[in-house]
Amino acid sequence: MQEIWDILPGLGDKLAAHVVLAASAIALAMLIALPMAVWAGRSRTVSRIALSLASLVQTIPALALLALFFPLLLSLRSVFGEGLPTLGFLPALMALTLYALLPILRNAVTAQANLDEGVLEAADGVGMTKWQKLVLVEAPLSAPFIMAGIRTASVWTIGAATLATTIGQPSLGDPIFAGLQTQNWALVLAGCLASAGLALAADNLLWVIEVGLARRKRWMTYGGMAIVVLGILAALWGQRSDETERPIVIASKQFSEQYILAQLIGSRLEAAGYTVEYRDGLGSAVVHSAVASSSVDISVDYTGTIWANFLKRADNPGREAMYETIREWEARQNGVKVLGRLGFENAYAFAMRSDRAQELGVTSLADLVGKGGALTVGGDPEFFERPEWLAVRDAYGLRFGKTRNFAPTFMYDALRSGEADVISAYTSDGRIAADKLVVLADPKAALPSYDALLLLSPRIAEDPGVAAALQPLLGAITVEAMREANFAVDREDAGKLTPKQAAEQLRKRVEIGK
Amino acid sequence: METAPPLLRFDGVTCRFGEVTAVGGVTCDIAAGCFVAMVGASGSGKSTLLKTVNTLVEPTGGRVLFAGEDVSELPPARLRRRVGYVFQGIGLFPHFSVAENIAIGPRLAGEKLAPARIAELLELVELDPAYSARMPDELSGGQRQRVGVARALAGEPELLIMDEPFGALDPVTRDALGRKVRELHGRLGLTTVMVTHDMAEALLLADRVVVMDKGAMVADATPHALLAGEGGAVAQRLVSVPREQAERLAAMELRG
Ligand SMILES: Nc1ncnc2c1ncn2[C@@H]1O[C@H](COP(=O)(O)OP(=O)(O)O)[C@@H](O)[C@H]1O
Ligand SMILES: [Mg+2]
C-alpha cells in the first residue's frame, strides 16, 4: 500500500498528458457533435445516419480503434507529406474523439426532440429567427441533457485514454501497462487509482455544472466551469517543458527484457548528460515504425523479427549475413542507424530438463532424430504455426509423439511436471537459468538468429554523443546476464526487482565485464 | 355594414396536412378595432386558421392580408412583432423570469424594456410588479396566463390573437380575465381575435362571433343576431347550450 503512495506523486507528467489528451478529445467531439445534433434536429435522415455511425464506432474495441489510426495516418502521409505524425497525440486524439461522439450526439438529439412543443411555437410566435430560437430557447433548455452526455463521454474518454500508451502517447496507461508486464502490481494500482480518481473528479465537476444548468444556479455552472478550465490550464502548464528541447525518447515493447534494456540505455544517456523520456509498453508492431519516423529515438529490436516482418524474408542466410543485410536495409530504407548488437540473442530455441536430457543423451536437435516418437513437445499457442517450427522440423526430419500448446507461463510448469519433454523457449528467458534447463544446440542453423540490436532514429542517427554513450553496451550483454536480469523482474518471490533495479545490476555487470 | 378597411382579411384560405384538410377555403374580413370570438368544436381548424396570420402555418391555398399586405411577403420576424399572440399552451419560456418573458419581443427588436414599463404591463393584467423576478414555475395557472397576455401586449401590437387563452382556468379567474381582456381591448384600441370553446363567453365578450365547423366558417354574426336565432343550425346548436342553462337557472330561482 505504502508503495502506491510513493508512486503516485511521480505520475504528475502522465496525469497532465492524460488530462490534455482527454480534454482535447471531448472538446473536439463537442465541436463535431453539437452542430451535427442541430442538423439532426431538422432532418430525420441525418439524425438516423449520424446516430448509427456513432453507435457503430462504439462497437469497435477502444484498443483496436486506437491501433487502426496508425495505418490510416501512415497512408495519409502520401497526401499530407512525411511530417504527419502517425503515433502519439494525433491518432490518440482522433480515436478518442470518435469514441466520445456518441453520448454527446445522442443526448443532444434526444434533448431537442423532447423540447416542449408549446414553448417552441411561442418562440416562433414572438418573432424569433431560427438562429435566435436556437440560441435563446433550444440551447439553454437542452443544456442540462447535453451536459449529461458530455459527462458520460468524459468518464469513458478518461478511461479509454489509458490505452493511448500502446500507440506511444504518454498517459496514465503508462504505469498500468509497465506494471502489468513486469507484474509490479503497485504500479498497476497506482495508474488505475490515478485514472479512476481523475474520472471521478471530472464526473463530479461536470455534474455540478449540469445541476447548475438545470436549476439555473449560475454560481454552480460558472464555478464548475472555472474549475474545469483551471484544471486543463494546470495540465497544459505541466506539459509546457515538453515544448523546449526534446529529450531522447526510449521505446520499449511489452515484455520485461525491453523495460530493463530501456532503463539501462536511459541511465547511460543520463550519465552522459542527456535528458531522456521513456515510452514504455508500445505495441510490438508499432515500435519499428515509431523509430523510423523519429516518434521515438531508441529501441531494441531483434534481427529475426525485422527479417521476417519488415524485410518479409523467409530464408536463413546465416547470422552474420542477416545482420549485415538488416544494417544496410535500415540505413537505406528508413534512415535508421543500427548502432550494433548487444551481444545476446532472444531467439526461439528448444529446451529440456537437464536430467531428462542426460538420461536420453541429448545435447542438440540432431540428437532428437529417431527418439522423438516417444516425446511430447510443448509450444506457445502460435508456435506450431510459425515458420521457425516448420524450418526446424524439416531441417532435421523431426517427428514427435505429441505436440501440445501451453500459455507461455505454464510451459515451464509442464516441463517440470513431465507433461512435456521438450518445449519451445526464448533464449534470454530468465527461467532457463532458474530451472537449470538445457538449451539444445542447432548445428544445422535451422532457427533464424534473433540478435538484439540497438536502433537509433534518423533524428539522432548521427549524434556522436549518443553513440559514444551507448558504445560500451555493444557486445557486452551475455545471454546469461540478460537471463538473470529478466528472471529478477519476472520472479514472484522476495528477490523480485523493478526493471530499473535490474537495469542497475546489469549496468554494473557490464561495466565490470569491460 | 362596416366602412373601415379591414385590418385582417382571409381570402379563400385552405390548409391541408397530407390527407387532412384542416381549413377548407375560409374568406372573412376583420375590421380594425373589432373584438371577434371564434367558436367551434375541437379539431375544426381554429388554431390552424389563426396561425396563418403570423405565418406559423403556410396556407396551401388562398392568401392572408394584414393591413392590406400579403403576410407571405412580409419578413416573418417583423410581422410577428406586430401581432400579439397568446398561445393555447401559454408557452412561457421556463428559463426566463417573468420580466424576461414579457420583454422578449422588444428585446428581439433590439430594444430594452424599462422596468417601469414591465411593471405597467403587469399592472395591466392585474399582477403585482414584484412578480417580475419570479420564474414561470413559481406561478399559478391564472398568473401564468396573465403573464402570457402581458407578453403579447409588450410590443404594442396592432392585432391581438388569443387561442383558447383561458381553457385551463377555473371559472372565477376565467371570468375576471375575460373582462380584463375586453377592457384592455377598448383601452388600448386593439383588434382582437379570441378562440374559445365557450359560446357564453363569446356572446358576452365579443362584437362578432364566427363559428367554425370541419374547416369551414359556417356562421358570422353579432351576439344579438345569434341570440335572435340567426347564423344557421350549427351556430344555433352552440347558442342553445348556454341559453338553456340560463333558462334552467332562472326557473330554479323563480321556484325559490
Ligand atoms: N401540423 C399538423 N400536422 C398534421 N395535422 C394537423 C397539424 N395541425 C393541425 N392538424 C389537424 O388539423 C385539424 C385542425 O386542427 P386545429 O386547427 O388544431 O383545430 P382546433 O384548434 O380547432 O381544435 C385537426 O384534424 C388536426 O389534427
Ligand atoms: Mg386549437
Main pleated-sheet profile of chain A: 5 strands, mixed
Regarding CATH, which class of the largest domain in chain A?
Mainly Alpha
CATH topology annotation of the largest domain in chain A: MetI-like fold
Helix percentage range of chain A: 55-70%
Taking pLDDT < 50 over at least 5 consecutive residues as the criterion, the unreliable ranges of chain B are: none
What does this structure look like?
- The complex is a heterodimer of chains A (514) and B (256).
- Chain A has 514 residues and is an alpha/beta fold.
- Chain A folds into 3 domains: 238 residues, MetI-like fold; 163 residues, D-Maltodextrin-Binding Protein, domain 2, CATH 3.40.190; 92 residues, 3-Layer(aba) Sandwich (D-Maltodextrin-Binding Protein, domain 2), CATH 3.40.190.
- Chain A is built from 21 helices and 10 strands.
- Chain A has a 5-stranded mixed β-sheet with strand order 7-6-8-5-9. A 3-stranded antiparallel β-sheet of chain A has the order 3-10-4, with helices on both faces.
- In chain A, helix 2 crosses helix 10 and helix 5 packs across helix 7.
- The two termini of chain A are 40 Å apart.
- The mean pLDDT of chain A is 87.
- Chain B has 256 residues and is α/β, with parallel strands linked by helices.
- Chain B has a single domain, classed as P-loop containing nucleotide triphosphate hydrolases (Rossmann fold, 3-Layer(aba) Sandwich), CATH 3.40.50.
- Helices cover 40% and strands 25% of the residues of chain B.
- In chain B, helix 6 links the parallel strand 7 and strand 8.
- In chain B, helix 4 crosses helix 5.
- The longest helix of chain B is centred in the last third of the chain and has 24 residues.
- Chain B is globular.
- Chains A and B meet through helix 6 and helix 7 of A and helix 2 and helix 3 of B.
- Magnesium ion binds next to helix 1 of chain B.
